[in-house]
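Q: Give me the 3D complex with cytidine-5'-monophosphate.
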Amino acid sequence: MADNRIITALDVHSLDDMKKLVESLGDSVSFYKVGMELFYSAGPDAVRYLKDQGKHVFLDLKVHDIPNTVGQSIRALTRLGADLMTLHGTGGRAMMEAAAEAVRNEAEKLGIERPRLLAVTVLTSIDEACWEEIGGKYEIAETVLRLAKLAKEAGIDGTVSSPYEAKAIREMNGSDFLIVTPGIRPSFAVANDQKRFTMPRQALQDGASHLVIGRPITKADEPRDAVRKILEEIQGV
Ligand code: C5P
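A: Here is the predicted complex, encoded as structure tokens.
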């Protein structure tokens, strides 16, 4: 049986490639991530296909603009029926509030369950040197927590975070807050280009509510078998 805490990243750029992967995984995966690569290539059909298959969808488009534009964009995306969507916390309080309000209103109008919104805090690709270059005032770790707190105050449901940040955010924002973490490597998988990664069980124990896992599943010789092993690793957590 699938586990809704495991989100498989569909990092492919055509509907055909996506469908092949989803078919091969069958009922072993119930939650998929559609990111910019797939969405900009295949468009809303990628989300519609997954919803038609009865899957949950994490639409990771990291929206970032002025509040009015973000509100209208999030309103449009809500109509696609994704379960989780992302925006940048650095867009500020008013931008996040506009998004939260747009989701609530549009979902109510459509009579569908409200998609949940996640804020990206500081991208994990940004190191201290880059942070200084772009004028970051506080240390990265402190900024992550400030943005996570601000997101919650603005009505956002959770954050996308490194597993290393999960514990502090969980302690600060409470048990209902969603914490979705990429950078996960099961014990059987290679690191690929992930430098700092955490095993699935550890990430959940540290407070993650969902894990985004891509290549360890999608590039495995037997993707279904990879999922099965991951589920074994997190059994009981
Ligand atoms: O293949 P892998 O498991 O590394 O894929 C992880 C997914 O999470 C990819 O879609 C990647 O873009 C995303 N991601 C990440 N690290 C971050 C943020 C997002 O790996 N810090």
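A quick observation: The chain has a mean pLDDT of 96.
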